[in-house]
Amino acid sequence: MDASPHLFVCVANEGAEDLQVLKVYRRLPDESAASQGFVRIIDDSGEDYLYPQSAFLPLSVPLSLEQQLEAVAAELSRS
Fold first, then answer.
1. How far apart are CA 59 and CA 67, in angstroms?
2. How would you label 22-43 residue by residue, b for 16+ Cβ within 10 Å and e otherwise?
3. What is the structure's pLDDT at 23?
4. What is the per-residue pLDDT for 32?
5. Three-class SS string for the chain?
6. pLDDT > 90: percent of the chain
7. 48 and 40 in contact (C-beta within 8 Å)?
8. In which residue ranges of the chain is pLDDT below 50?
């Protein structure tokens, strides 16, 4: 499992209609994007897009909580 944070808090949404400031978003690993200063985020549209890393702060949570949140997200995506 990727050890870097999977959850990020949006701190800036200029020009991004599908992001809300202070909302938590899931990150998908993308080394190529990260090397260019971007992060791949599943936004409010439900799709993943590249956004500037500067628009997010990583949110470190215990693994057990992250797994619970992922389970909730998976359940919501099925409904």
1. 14
2. eeebbbeeeeebeeeebbbbbb
3. 96
4. 97
5. CCCCCCEEEECCCCCCCCCCCCCEEEEECCHHHHHCCEEEEECCCCCEEEEEHHHEEEECCCHHHHHHHHHHHHHHHHC
6. 71
7. yes
8. 1
